[in-house]
Amino acid sequence: MGKHRRPASPHQLSDLLRLDPGAPVDLTRIDPGSTPGSDEGKKRAREVQAGLAPRFADLQERLYAQGRSGGPRRVLLVLQGMDTSGKGGVSRHVLGQVDPQGVTIAAFGAPTEEELAHDFLWRIERELPAAGQIGVFDRSHYEDIVSVRVRGLAPQEVWEARYDRINDWERQLVEDGTTVVKVFLHISRAESKERLLARLDDPTKHWKYKAKDVDDRALWPAWQQAYADVLQRCGTDVAPWFVVPADHKWYRDLAVTSLLVEQLERFGLGWPAADVDVAAERARLLAAE
Ligand code: AMP
Ligand code: MG
């Protein structure tokens, strides 16, 4: 980056992080340790994020208020990434900045027998956010391509058919009033190893450690290729993918906060009008004891 280039304001981060729909995706060319649009370091990034927080909370409350008043809008934040990439951290540190009443978080693990007996979108549809809500998917329908492919859980024709299914399904979601924000948290193999080691070294984190996480690491290139393919084939104009470099937690949190603020700003939401005669109600209240 040239030194004359003006630092991007947080509101422009989406332009730096969005993948062009249809363009080839090569994750090896995106540095997980990079911090696009935020080159002044952790302290400054935390300050910028703190500055955005009141705006974020205000916008989220408008969305919630509109939902309570019959507005159709809702936001779905889809989080994908390798284990330790910080999906849970985003839920805590980014969504933790707004009123929890307006946030619904769904985490998708390996499907149950009941879930496997249904179409792969069945369990997903049941967790979609209601009007006025910001829904967060900690893993999602994309596992039904990526995990299934890398672990060989179904033949290729099964997961191959899902790229188009997902694109059609997401298009319908968007038409029905859901803004879909898809984020791939891009962590490096080295940083992921550090975080797994930290889990083993800290008894308060042992519960997070799963032996299969190390097995998954052994297949790292296969996971990266499977992710690159969904990023490419399921990046659409109506529901593009954003790649957030995730080796720095402070950058990850600032970036996802900025993406959400930017989407919410775009709605231009006001406050719902009162459904009562405010002056008359005021008079009635004053007249009462
Ligand atoms: P965690 O997020 O650490 O609780 O791990 C959830 C595990 O569930 C991960 O290993 C995922 O790969 C796995 N998983 C989630 N969805 C699916 C799916 N549709 N098919 C297979 N595995 C899945
Ligand atoms: Mg895990």
Automatic annotation (TrEMBL):
NCBIfam families listed in its UniProt record: PPK2_rel_1
Protein name (Swiss-Prot/TrEMBL): PPK2 family polyphosphate:nucleotide phosphotransferase
Keyword hit for Membrane: no
Matching Gene3D superfamilies: P-loop containing nucleotide triphosphate hydrolases
Region (Disordered): 1-47
Species of the source: Motilibacter rhizosphaerae
TM spans (from-to): none
Stored Pfam families: PPK2
InterPro entries: P-loop_NTPase, PPK2-rel_1, PPK2-related
Keywords: Transferase
GO biological process: polyphosphate metabolic process
Residue ranges annotated for the Polyphosphate kinase-2-related domain, each copy included: 43-265
GO molecular function, one term: phosphotransferase activity, phosphate group as acceptor
Keyword Glycoprotein belongs to the record: no
